[in-house]
C-alpha cells in the first residue's frame, strides 16, 4: 500500500492509453508478458501481499496449471507504473491507487480482495501528543495522495479538523518516517513495515489507525482489463491459487511466517506483530465486498468515497469510471 509520486504515475497512465505521441514513446516500456501462458504479477512490501511469495516457494501455482512470474518491487510506485505500462499483467495495489490510474484512462480490473488494512496504516505522533486533536498547528509528514494521507484526513474530520489545521509536510513515505525518527516533524502517516521504524522514536505512539475506519483501505489483485477479457482461465487459476495458499499457510503457520518475514526483511516476531493489522479476506468476505451496497464492507461504496477524496484534493482531474472495475466472476468460481 502504499505510496505514489503522481508525476511518474501520470506518465505511466499516459503511456498505457497511448497519449504521449511518438516523441514520448521512449518513456513507455513494453512487455511480452501477455504472450504465451505466463502471467506476471507485481507485488511489494505489505503484509497482505506476501502470500504470493509463499505460493511461489511452495509451487502452488503449478497445482492450478498456471505459469506465474512474480516481480518484487522495492518501491511500490514502480509496481503501479509497471501495470500501467504493461510491464506486468497484474499487480497488488490499493483501491485508491487503482482509482487514480483509472481516472487517467488506464483499463484495469479488480478480481480479488487480498485484505483490508485493520491497523497497519497509522498516524504516529511524538511524545506529548495524546490524540488527533493535539495535531493542531503541528508538522505532519505524509505522502500526498496515498492511503495514509487519506487516513489522516479521515482522522482529522473525526476530530472536527481539516488539513488547514495542521502543517502538512509532503514527502515520500520512507523519507517521512526518517524525518519523524530524526525529530524533524511531530507526526507521520505510514504503513507497515515502515511503522516499525517510526515507533522506534522514544515516546512515540499511534494516535489513529486504519482499525478505526473499517473498509476504508482495501488491497487488491488488479489485472490489465484485456488480460481478464482474453485469458480468463489463467486469471481463475491465479485466484484459486490465492485461496490454496491461504489454506497452506493455515496448516503451516511457522514456515509461512518465516517466508513472509524474510521477503519483507523483518524478524518473524516483527512480522507476527502485523497480524491483527491486516485482515486477509476469505472467499465469502470477497463475495460480500464485491456485492453492491452502501456500507463500509462494499467496494462500490468505498470506491465512491475514495474517488471524492482524489477529486477534492486535486489528485485526480476526472472521476474514475467504475463501470466494469470490479469483476466478481473469479471469486464466485473458486471451489468451496
TrEMBL record:
Which lineage is the organism of this entry classified under, starting from the top rank? Answer: Bacteria, Bacillati, Actinomycetota, Actinomycetes, Pseudonocardiales
The identity of this protein, by name, is: ABC transporter substrate-binding protein
Output the superkingdom of the source species. Answer: Bacteria
- State the similarity comment: Belongs to the bacterial solute-binding protein SsuA/TauA family.
Q: Which organism is it from?
A: Kibdelosporangium philippinense
The record's annotation in Pfam families points to: NMT1_2 (PF13379)
Q: What is its main location?
A: periplasm
What is the annotated signal peptide range for this record?
1-35
Per UniProt, which keywords does this protein have?
Signal
